[in-house]
Every structure is written in structure tokens, then in C-alpha cells.
Amino acid sequence: AMAQAALGAAGLHLYELNKLRVLEPEVAAQTAQLREECRAFVDKTAEFQKIVGSLIELVDQLAKAAESEKMKAIGARNLLKSIAKQREAQEQQLQALIAEKKMQLERYRIEYETLCKIEADQNEFIDQFIFQK
After folding, report:
1. Among 32, 41, 94, 133, which residue has the least CB neighbours within 10 Å?
2. Which residues is 14 bridged to in the sheet?
3. How many CA atoms does the CB half-sphere of 76 hold within 13 Å?
4. In angstroms, rounded to a whole number, what is the distance separating the alpha carbons of residues 78 and 85?
5. Measured between alpha carbons, how far is residue 81 from residues 33, 38, 88, 90, 91 in Å?
6. How far is residue 23's CA from residue 36's CA, in Å, rounded to a whole number?
């Protein structure tokens, strides 16, 4: 114990297995503890970076998926617009065809009435011709 006190006064300290060191045992223990805490901190920082990295990757994937769905929605909307325009054009064509057929029907009706009148006139002429004989 007296030897340790003399060494301590000289700034030297005996450790386990009689190793001679300059640091006081308490300072050495604190240094070792600090080293362990730093190592743990570095490990946790690395783990945190890994987590952040995978989170960024996930957010990127979600952004790409959202962009893809947005493009699909835009495509579907454009398709619906073009279908609506096609339907409108078809409807206009059919309306024009209906108008044309109505005019044709009116011509046929007038022609029919004219033919009926001619038939009536001819029948009347025949009747008069028969009665004259």
C-alpha cells in the first residue's frame, strides 16, 4: 500500500496483473465508459441513418406509384373525353340523317297525295266514259 502511495505521488498507478499506467484508475474507467458510450452512439447513429435511408426509399417508391396512378387517371379522363366527343359527333350525324329521312317522307307523302288525286281523276274519267256509252 505504501508502494502504491509512493507511485501515486509520482503520477504512476498499478492496475490488475500489476500493469503500470500513468492514468488514475478512476479516469481510466471513465475513459473506457466514454469510449463505450461513443461506440454505442455511433452504432445508434448508423442505425438511424439506415432507417432514414429506407424511409426515403419508401417515400420515393410511394411518389413514383402516385405519379403512375396520376398518369393513369389523366389517360382515363382523356379517353372519356374522346369517347364523349365521338358520341356527340355520332349523335349529330344521326340527327342529320333523321332530318333527311323526314324530308324524304314529306316528299313521298306529297307524291302519294298527288297520285291519289290522279287516280281519282282517272276513275272519274273512266266512269264518265262508261256512262256515255
Report:
1. 133
2. 20
3. 6
4. 11
5. 71, 63, 10, 14, 15
6. 18
pLDDT in tens, 45-64: 999 999 999 999 999 999 99
Q: Which of 36, 11, 42, 35 is nearest to 24 (CA)?
A: 11
Please tell me the distance from the alpha carbon of residue 60 to that of residue 53, in angstroms, as a whole number: 11
The secondary structure element, H or E, covering residue 20 is strand 20-21
User: What is the biggest distance separating any 2 CA atoms in the chain, rounded to whole angstroms?
Assistant: 176
What is the reported pTM? Answer: 0.47
Question: Could you tell me how far CA 98 lies from the centroid of its own chain?
Answer: 44
Q: In the Cβ-directed half-sphere of 21, how many Cα atoms lie within 13 Å?
A: 13
In angstroms, the Cα distances linking 28 to 7, 9, 13 are 16, 17, 11
